[in-house]
Amino acid sequence: MAARCQVTGVGPQFGHSISHSHRRTKRRFDPNIQKKRYWVPSLGRHVTLNLSVKGIKTIDVRGIDAVVAELIEKGEKL
């Protein structure tokens, strides 16, 4: 599963791990991606989305129909 949210677009960020002696090594900060299945009344079917936790909260506030309409407008595959 790709580490990218379909709603917010958030992806992995990169930085350094810093040891006690202050040596830096590359590391990757992955977002908290969850696979969620929603019933979309406007489409009349279920849709499975890869979402960050902030994307799930966005759907709770705006509603699944508005978010899915925006994703279809962007050309996102559902």
TrEMBL record:
Task: Supply the InterPro entries for this chain.
Answer: Ribosomal_bL28 (IPR026569), Ribosomal_bL28/bL31-like_sf (IPR034704), Ribosomal_bL28_bact-type (IPR001383), Ribosomal_bL28_sf (IPR037147)
Region feature Disordered, mapped onto this chain: 1-26
| Signal sequence bounds | none
Recorded superkingdom: Bacteria
Task: Tell me the keywords, alphabetical order.
Answer: Ribonucleoprotein, Ribosomal protein
The UniProt entry's GO biological process terms, in alphabetical order, are: translation
| UniProt GO cellular component terms | ribonucleoprotein complex; ribosome
What are this entry's molecular-function GO terms? structural constituent of ribosome
Q: Which family does it belong to?
A: Belongs to the bacterial ribosomal protein bL28 family.
Protein name per UniProt? Large ribosomal subunit protein bL28
Per the UniProt entry, what species is this protein from, by scientific name?
Nesterenkonia xinjiangensis
